[in-house]
Design brief:
Length: about 325
């Protein structure tokens, strides 16, 4: 199901889509990882699959470091780097369990991988020196993001650890999610002030790094991705978050199949798009905020189905009316 300002990518993955990520500077290059063991590079402007490479098992996350290098990890436990110009991949190393998260820290030239083995590993990709450090976490890593030199890790048990990647002897702060149930996604504000996290309970929390009492008073949480039908409210997990890099607003996606756009500072919803076929597994705004990649992919939240909804990646042209604070 597409709207008039949307189109579906061609040559889609053949199994569940885990992550979509636009490149850091190009408006049109998109990485997509999948349970079909592939990582695919699309040129969305021409709707062409440029390159794909594979792991030995499902790929759970991927990212760019620059426009010609991609990184990925998943159930095979290996961290791979792919050079799109040379069409060659390199195994950087491995974790002891599945890799759930892969993020790039451009300020320090590091790629960070978070695993179910309760560690985050830092890979020196600028100087090709391999593992630059290992950060022990309290539990299995479920979600991560990078803000300048900070790494924010959300793990099982609602733990949130904030690390300064310039000094990793211990976490900068140890926090617990203000939401009551398991964290699903964490993403940082482009302005570096804080982060947003979502949970399985249909709620989103807006948090700030500044530990001062005045700053902490401004944090808050709100309900979303809930549908009332016939007098009954159904609550859906909030599965994906992506920030608009220009306007500092963000989109959320849920198991209800909806995408909402929020202005955190004015505490209001700016837009809601039409309902997509199934769970929003991942979202990504491109660098100038003109496009939003939407991965609609059934995540077995209702168990195995004989005819599950078809997985798809939709590219939506977004406007300032939908994404700019009013």
């Amino acid at each position: 199901m597409e709207g008039p300002n949307e189109f579906e990518l061609s040559t889609l993955p053949t199994d569940g889509i885990s992550t979509v990520r636009f490149g850091p500077t190009s408006t049109g290059f998109l990485l997509a990882s999948s349970w079909d063991k592939s990582v695919r590079l699309y040129d969305v402007n021409s709707n062409v699959l440029r390159v794909q490479y594979h792991h030995a098992a499902a790929v759970l996350d991927c990212c760019f470091s620059d426009e010609v290098h991609g990184f990925s990890g998943g159930l095979d436990k290996f961290v791979k780097m792919f050079d799109f110009n040379a069409s060659s991949d390199t195994v950087l190393g491995a974790h002891h369990d599945a890799i759930r998260c892969v993020n790039h820290c451009p300020a320090l030239g590091l790629v960070c991988t978070g695993s179910w083995d309760k560690t985050v590993k830092l890979w020196d990709v600028r100087n090709n020196r391999g593992v630059a450090g290992t950060l022990d976490q309290q539990e299995k890593v479920y979600t991560m993001d990078v803000s300048q030199e900070k790494l924010i890790v959300g793990s099982k048990g609602r733990h949130v650890l904030i690390w300064d990647l310039r000094n990793t002897s211990q976490p900068l702060w140890r926090r617990e999610s203000t939401l009551k149930y398991q964290t699903r996604s964490i993403r940082c504000f482009p302005n570096g002030q804080g982060y947003v996290l979502s949970s399985i309970e249909g709620r989103v929390a807006v948090e700030f790094f500044d530990p001062s009492p005045d700053a902490q008073k401004t944090k808050y949480a709100f309900k979303c991705h809930r549908i009332k039908e016939n007098g009954k409210e159904t609550i859906y997990p909030v599965t994906a978050i992506s920030f608009h890099l220009i306007h500092n607003t963000f989109a959320t996606g849920g198991c209800d199949g909806f995408v909402n756009v929020w202005d955190a500072f004015n505490r209001k919803r700016l837009a809601q798009f039409h309902r997509y076929p199934t769970t929003i597994a991942s979202l990504s705004f491109n660098c100038d905020g003109s496009l939003l990649a939407i991965a609609s992919s059934y995540m077995l939240e209702e168990g195995e189905k004989e005819s599950p909804p078809r997985d798809t990646i939709i590219i939506r042209h977004v406007t300032d009316m939908e994404t700019k604070p009013k």
